[in-house]
Design brief:
Number of strands: 0
Radius of gyration: 24 Å
Strand content: under 5%
Shape: rod-shaped
Helix content: over 70%
Largest sheet: none
Order of helices and strands: H
């Protein structure tokens, strides 16, 4: 019985760590997408040089 308790405890800890990792990765990805959307909404810079 002692061995099963240790295995269950390890599994629970690993699941919690996986959830925390996935949440933090999701937040980073969401911020990145928001920045890309903001950059795409800004008018592109115009060049003053010759046009081809």
């Amino acid at each position: 019985m002692e061995r099963n308790s240790i295995v269950e405890g390890l599994v629970i800890v690993l699941v919690i760590l996986l959830v925390v990792f996935l949440i933090s990765k999701n937040r980073k990805d969401q911020k990145k997408i928001e920045q890309e959307i903001t950059q795409s909404e800004i008018d592109p810079e115009k060049h003053d040089g010759e046009h081809v």
